[in-house]
Design a protein that fits this description.
Blueprint lengths: L11 H15 L7 H8 L3 H12 L3 H18 L4 H7 L5 H6 L1 H5 L3 H5 L6 E9 L2 E7 L4 E7 L2 H11 L4 E4 L4 H11 L14 H10 L8 E2 H7 L6 H9 L12 E2 L12 H16 L7
Parallel strand pairs: 1-4, 5-6
Antiparallel strand pairs: 1-2, 2-3
Length: about 290
């Protein structure tokens, strides 16, 4: 079908951010500094930091930390001994992690390895331009975003996703819900995230965050961006597994022929999001995010 959605070439800023993400993931167990990254990509550390933060909503150091923590969570969830998991994900000081594990992991490593049993998740629900929304968060960041017709359905889905966690409605989660509504209205908001995924899923989700406001990419484009040009179906599956849609913009991924493809929150919401973002992206006051 003929699509009114224009698929533009990646911006230079987005390309630089994507390349930095790739380098960080491939070298996550090494010492990475802004000076190292600047020399690698031929730009000043200041320019690299500013550009990466503008596109990704976090600094290169914060991205490295999130990637390492994601890997650590995955190793622990598979039952690996803690010391081995630490060494395998780039951490050299066991005491450093344990002293701050509650803030960094939202739970102790042992608790996480046991499937998150006893972990604390708080949530809030409310109205939005897309219907009822639920935002859930741990001490570390947003762990789930859901949209639906009723709060009962949304809470039921959250409990099904985290069956071993202690889940409750709490006023402090309202801040993230309000922030998400501001995000949907075009304001730039930075969200701390507490999400899990395979290496491939994390690479896809990172690539999605480089798609500028008002633009789209095809599943094939994303597959090429993560270095797996034949993994188009796997990219689609990673988009479908995105635990924080709207924050990680999987709605900006369409089929190569211009048709919309699938969307876990409903095709009509995908259409509405793309239409709204095209309008916002055309406004010079908004820029890319």
């Amino acid at each position: 079908m003929q699509s009114s959605i224009e698929v533009k070439a990646p911006t230079r800023k987005a390309e630089l951010a994507r390349a930095v993400c790739d380098y960080i993931r491939e070298n996550s167990t090494s010492r990475i500094t802004l000076k190292t990254l600047g020399a690698k990509f031929g730009v000043s550390p200041f320019h690299l930091q500013r550009t990466f933060t503008e596109v990704m909503g976090m600094s290169p150091r914060e991205y490295l930390e999130e990637f390492r923590l994601s890997n650590l969570r995955r190793h622990l969830a598979r039952g690996e001994p803690v010391i081995r998991a630490l060494r395998g994900t780039g951490y050299s000081a066991q005491s450093w992690l344990y002293q701050d594990s509650k803030r960094r992991l939202g739970m102790t490593p042992a608790t996480y390895r046991n499937g998150g049993e006893g972990a604390s998740i708080v949530f809030a629900t409310g109205r939005s331009s897309l219907g009822r929304l639920l935002v859930a968060t741990t001490d570390h960041g947003v762990c789930a975003v859901k949209a639906g017709r009723s709060d009962e359905d949304l809470v039921r889905a959250l409990r099904a996703e985290f069956p071993r966690a202690d889940i409750e409605r709490a006023p402090r989660a309202r801040r993230q819900l309000d922030a998400l509504n501001r995000h949907l209205s075009g304001q730039e908001v930075k969200f701390p995230l507490d999400i899990r995924g395979t290496d491939f899923q994390m690479s896809v989700w990172a690539a999605l965050r480089t798609i500028p406001l008002g633009e789209t990419r095809s599943y094939h484009d994303i597959a090429e961006m993560v270095g797996k040009p034949k993994a188009v179906r796997a990219v689609a599956n990673a988009c479908a597994s995105n635990p924080v849609p709207l924050i990680i913009p999987c709605h900006r991924v369409i089929r190569k022929d211009g048709s919309l493809g699938g969307y876990g929150l409903g095709i009509y919401r995908k259409k509405a999001l793309l239409s709204s973002e095209r309008a916002m992206g055309a406004d010079p006051k908004n820029g890319s995010r």
